[in-house]
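Archive entry. Fields below.
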Amino acid sequence: MATTLPHKDVAIIGLGWTGSILAYELATAGLDVIAIERGPWRDTATDFPPTWAQDELRYGVRLDLFQRPAQSTMTLRNKISQTALPVRQFSSFLPGNGLGGAGVHWNGMNYRFLPTDYQLRTHVTQKYGAKAIPDDMTIQDFPMTYEELEPHFDRFEKLAGISGKAGNLNGQIQPGGNPFEGPRSAEYPNPPNRQPYGATLFAKAAAELGYHPFPVPSANLSQPYTNTLGVAMGQCTFCGFCERFGCGNYAKSSAQTCVMPALVRQKNFTARMNANVTKINLDSTGKKATGVTYVDDTGAEFIQPADMVAVCAFSFNSVHLLLLSGIGQPYDPVANTGQVGRNFAYQCTSSVLVQLPKDTKLNPFVAGGAVGTVIDDFNGDNFDHTGLGFIGGGVLQATSTGGRPITQISAFKDTPKWGAGWKQAMQDNYQTIYPLGTQGNVCAYRDAYLDLDPTYKDPYGSPLLRLTFDWHPNELKMSAYITEKLAGIGKAMGATRIESAPRTGPYTVVPYQTTHTTGGAITGDSPSNSVVNKYLQSWDVSNVFVFGASAFPQNSGYNPTGTVGGMTYFAIDQIKSQYLKNPGPLVPA
Amino acid sequence: MRFVALSNPRVILAAALLGAGAILATHFAAAQSTPPATADAQTIAAGKYLVAAGDCVACHTAPGGAPFAGGTVINTPFGKLLGPNLTPDQDTGIGGWSDDQFVQAVKYGYGHNVGHLYPGLPYIYFNKVPVADILKIRAYLNSLAPVHNQIVADQLPFPFDIRALMIGWNLLYFPDTGDYRPDPSQSAEWNRGAYLVQGLGHCAACHTPKNAFGGDKTGQEFAGYIVDGANAPALVDSTANGLGAWSVDDIATYLSTGHNRYADAGGPMASVITHSTSQLTSADDHAIATYLKSLPGNGAAPPAPVAPNDPQMIAGMHIYSDECSACHMTGGTGEPNIIPALKASPVVAATVPDTMTHVVLYGARSVGTDAAPVASAMPAFRGVLNDQQVADVLTYVRNSWGNAAPAVTPDQISAQR
Amino acid sequence: MAKGLRRRLFLVSGISVMACGAATQALALDASQWSLGWDSMPQAVQPGPWTFFTADEGAAVEALADRLIPSDDLSPGGKDVGVAVYIDRQLSGPFGRDAGLYMQPPFADGLPGQGPQSPLTPAERYRKTLSALDSFCKSAYLGKSFVDLSGDEQDKLIAQMEAGTLALQGANAKAFFQLLWQNTKEGFFADPIYGGNREMAGWKMIGFPGTHYDYSDWIDKHNQPIPLQPVGIADHPDWSQPTAQS
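PREDICTED_STRUCTURE:
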């Protein structure tokens, strides 16, 4: 029998980036806020101190900080005609868990999408014609523009202390930055990081080829910084244990490092850890949420009444909850009805291995998660796509994130797989092979979506989320094209050998690619084409807001967090100024 | 009841004081018993501010307890005291006390219901607070919700539980010079700072060394002390042991926020920051800083540093490089407002390394305030370093970057495990 | 009487968030949600008898590890660096029983892109396959176990397992090889506290300095050797005083 708890103004599901930012903003606005987080509390000195945080086996291989599939996972199939099977072990994507979510162990690459990315369908149609968009490609415009989001990107960057170099300040192109970026109203709050050797070779080669290298905008701080909430942060020491690891010296932006110290001081904020929300409860009309139901780690069930529910649980989990709670109509790809689950997208990555001369000392272990050089020349519509047969592109990056021996030593395909030859290759390669990469866009399609699995269940007896996803010709062509460009830069770096690995199909959940899973609860200008409005408010249940990358109508050729941060502040602004005064739909349906 | 050996020097002194005190007059006249009138909101607010300055919470609000309902354990070298209940409860609080009785307690150390108070209540410093201010404090306390909480403050073992001992002790260690008298040669700000520090702030309670009988050592004001294992550094103008490396602004920022360029308050000072100095105005914190910065150094020469080629220094350097420099930086500079500097740190260079030992073994957490919320924490190293290694790295840190302090031995470490 | 006030490191709210199962009410948080000295430092593997393997299994895994990572000028072999010890300790722990993975039925063979679908835990797979391998060797090599074969013979069998051309009774040799090789790499390169990579031999082979956390002084030193001795979570040879015993 569930215990009903005292009422709260707001129940926030998930205490990662978006949950903690929202909690802080609403608690300081005077609301009674409770955040309910499935995983444990995490604190730097106790959970990832620099005494033993640098444990590749525990964190890099056994994924100790991540969500366990036993807690929640999804089933996967490429095509609607196939049977989905459980992702029993995470590999391709690694959902986070606990306080701070994936923000604890991300690399820290922080971008804004291009202005044209936010108006993708309109832009592509205008420039290349409607036929450039295949019938089954369901891309659409964001309902807000880059310009509307700009001040909110800036706000997130100042919260996080992003270290970088502006390339376009109020319309003026700045040397050393990204000349393709949308106009920024301000410089980054911290200067860019120093560059390791391999990245400098890339930068030189890229510049020689006429491209525009710039330091990757980074949440690994280049200097000590006090953010907009008065929270002090440290500076990155290039330990090389970044993605999959917590940062031991307060130098990586995360909910812990940036928000929690100020949030925990708010008397009207409470957090419930190790508690899994199983449902958002609705009243008898189905149009109003009354709160949430959650189960703690003893199995006891609780009902938390609230006037407002914010779903900040990471894209997969958020969509899952909407489906389980009956909020919005589930998407049916065959009938093409319903919105919830529609337009799932991902990130299309590829790599190029660059063999440098034998006595090179790359010192790959001197690294940060977002320390290196990238170019944007082949992203979005920054280059002419006429006749290429695809839209989009991606960042090309020299951002080797570490020299961790179990998982990060590069080898060519013809390298012996074990034995004496393998050993020699490991020793030879460690200091001399540099891995370059691309992160390309993924468009949305009729047949790439999320729904509920008919067979497999989670520990609470609810159906697992089911993911139907495969690469489409657009992405594979895009990947082939930009990977070739990347290989060109590799050659210009003085490579004695190059090996390109553009993305090929079918999509496989092994090996690791990125955790940039987007869509399923997309934002749009009408209930007929989206699940949430531009302020991330559910069209169907107006006191439910769904934050995070589930709102992306499609994914661009960048890491998503910067856009997630900007959209979060954009929505919060409206919630505070309009919604709280007058709860109800913020955008006419 | 716990007993102390009759041969204990403190007991011998106690006996002497008892004898001496019995024949001395006291100036504590029997006080009136009329309860006070209810005060206006402004007075109460002023009293609340003064209570913050006096950090009354530290001894009179138990953790998780009702405000000022007492019960906090105060450990002294003589035994245990409990902070009394200051709520207006008639039976167990001070609701039935008159204003005069309250003043007698705070300013003169005399409790009309129990007799002489132990200097667990720092009346020797509160003596400098004008009666008008004490009455504002009274007004504030009187406005609180009464809480029924019976506290027996005196938990000391025999013979220290004999309050009359205090008569003699007061003769020796309670100057009773009365209200703070401004120094006309100093600025108004300096005098404000001096008033706060010498009176309600009672900083000397921890920061002035004590003799064996718990009285302030004369001529050593603010020369630093070790309070229950925690180092209360000197506040005089000395770089090796004092505020010499800090500017007035550094001191003020530290008091207001718990952090500055060099240090992050932890341990007992964290509580002082939270309940007291961060609740004062920035002008008052600046005044305190102005006064403290004016305290002259004691001219003590620092010791010669341990040589860099000493085996402890070499091993310590490796340990530091592997385990410490990622946060405290190669030059021991720390990071502003989050990681303390080890260079020019009086806590690091304290002659007795107990605080540093405790921090390294068990970790530490700095204070979070509204102005500087991050309560940065140091991990525990007791599972990583053995006694020799802790001693080596402490020796290294204490003798690098211009620091100089005695080397640390493994025995000093094992004593703290 | 003394003035020794003790200001304490008390928890303002006093409720620990760490305790599992204890949180039946919402927590008011403040900065003190941290217990002094609490940590979850990994426990170093202790040398000693096998915790999972039988003597024969252990010997077989040692022999396999020694072929996968042979001893040469570059480093000691898989056996000497402790790969089998590493694997043994892993198999008797959460990894061995697939703790945390989704192990609900029904199990079905999926497409390769759907990821591993087997209900076999690593512990079960090792046990099963080592037994099947032993049976195979005894049958094919006139009563010899894997450990008794010559190096070339062992290499040949490993290559067949890798290629999927070795038919073992009731066991999937290829899947076993993939698991074994993954674990062997881990045993060679993981922090020595886990039982392998003895004396950081794997790290020394490639020049990985291990758990150093501060490279601020080195990031600008491009294309230069960084002469840092490797260190591990519990391996710090330089921490002992030059003249003292370690």
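CURATOR_NOTE: Chain C touches chain B through 40 residues (CB under 8 Å).
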